[in-house]
Amino acid sequence: MQCGQYCEGCTNYYQCNDCIKKENIRRYEYLYDKTCGTCNDGLFVSFSIVTNKCQGKSNKCKDISDDGRVCKSCKDSSLFINEELATCQKCDTNNGWYISDKYCRRCPYQCLSCKGPNPNDCITCRDRLLKHDDGRCELKCDQDGFYIEGSKCLPCNPELNCQKCNNSISCTKCNSGLFIQSDINNGCDICQDGFFISGNYCKRCKENCYKCKDLNNCEKCADGFFSKNGICTLCPKDLKCKTCSDEITCTSCNSGEYFYSNNTCDTCKEEYQIDGILCKNCKQNCLKCSSKDACSQCTNRYFLKSGNCEACNPSLNCLTCSDQLSCTSCTKDKYINPDGQCDFCREGYFIENQFCKKCSDNCQKCSSVSQCIQCSQGYFLKGNVCKQCTPQMNCLTCINENSCESCEPGKFIQKDGKCDKCEQGYYIENKYCRQCKIGCSICTSYFKCDQCMPQFYKLKTV
Question: Which partner for 88 in 55, 60, 188, 242 could form a disulfide, CB atoms 3.0-4.6 Å apart?
Fold first, then answer.
């Protein structure tokens, strides 16, 4: 902002913050109206470089107070009293003063000539100011950093950093090195990534372009895209790239993913190990490894021995094994037997997790070690426990202590529940000995007698 004559900094053109130095070291006087100049006749400037005020007792006054601060009348009747400086002077009504009775008083700082002390009493305005119909003088708005809105001259929005603007939200010109951000906020700034310079403007690159020379010439694309003939093209999804250089080559991977030998990205899967930004193969038959030569887990049908993978014993039928003698898991529907191999669970065993566990003694089928379902021959189930059949009953299998369920060959279940040969007067029906009709000594069924007992005879059937 341009300041008035002799100013050392200002709030506007006509109001100085301080005054510049004179040739004799002291500064120009800081006057009552915040301008800088020299004292009137009869006054002198203070030698204080800090205050720089006009002081002393005017010799133009006819009647003046002892301290020199109040001039009551002038020696020369053609002069007027200046109350500010307590002196008498000619009243230059064409240069910022007006006459009020015997006094020469200062116009508002905006007025070059005026009729009174109020801001709307201006008759003419100082340079760079515009006279309004209501008598006010304001900036013409022909300087940088201001714009006209109705009858007001307003400063440009400082947040937009304009050199020139036409309203509070749009710059029309920027300082050197800055450009109008037409696609953001119409303020002035350097062209950021994703924009290119077009005259006085920063224009946005096409979608997914991070750096471009113009709208149709992208030099660097956003992650997940590559430049093809100046246009940003999506990296193929099956490559899983963070960035790529073309349709088949990743140049970087997303967090937690690594390069494979075919220049695609993915998490390191089984049988691979992380080596920097790469996924590399473990050695043959190795499922997990921390380096090519340090295997920590083998693939199925191999076991780990001193960092290497050796084959399980094929005769054990293992899916996995801890050594060549013992399986640790089996294929579907097979389980680890007590001998360490994988097979179906034999009779007298039950399945627990992936193992065949033995049923309790004398139990042929069970669901757990304490839950027998069927007992071995010579035993019967009482509650969940197998009890031995009574030896005197001669049972092959029995229902309880007093009843056989089956007998060894040539013997059958008698009327008393025991197993024995069928005596004369009995016939065989399934596994039982059944008594013939009374008087029959040999029969093949209850209704077919082959031989009668003495004193009995067979009736002839018609």
Answer: 60
